[in-house]
Amino acid sequence: MSNGKKIAYLLACIVTAIFIGCTSYLQVEDNITEEDTQHTQPSLYADQFASSCGVMPRGYKNHFKARGLGTGVLLSSGYILTNKHVIDRNKDGEISGYEMLLDIEIYYPVASVHSAVVVAWSERDWRDGEGEDIAVIHINNPPQSSIRLMSDEQYNRLPIGQDLMSIGRTAASIPHLIMGVRSMDVSNEYHRASMPAFFGNSGGGIYKKGDNLLVGLTTRIRREGMHFVPHWSEYVPATRIREFLYSRNLHRVID
Question: Is pTM, for the whole model, over 0.85?
Fold first, then answer.
């Protein structure tokens, strides 16, 4: 076989493999139905699962099947916290017009969809290098939640190596549980966890394992060149979330 034919054959194999992989993934997405979300509460971490929600564009017709924008955390106040970059669909750093109107998907214990509006957001997000990357959402008729933001004192006592857990829409799935530990902080804005987060986890809550207090919001994963660094997740810590909310006179969101 000539070198040209060998190269053509290899390219054909690669294209076929990519196509099969993508098709398989899309079939999984298409198989997610509303009935799949009609679960009773999980026996472990029921409160965290019940407070994990999908953030969707307003009026989306394919609920519980679509990729959506990311994850949010429903607090006991009835407000939702997520990342700014989750709702910045134009990726222009501004939140305006249709970007402010959302549908929120609740998965546990019973699936439901709620209209919502963005009421506050940080000026910057992780794409600016540094920035709180926080957005606050007001949801109509919110379900009950027991999740509260961890106090600054409690957060500052969390040791390196503390067991953590997070729930988010990994690869646009229904809420998915991942585990890890707190690692060394990388900056004042973002702290680090050794945790296998992926696309779709942005805006998802991080908790001390088995605790209802929110440690932070999953925000970004580390990439070097074309490769993702395994188990390197960065999050906005509770201390920065509280500082942002107080600066916007949004004490009611967490107090």
Answer: no
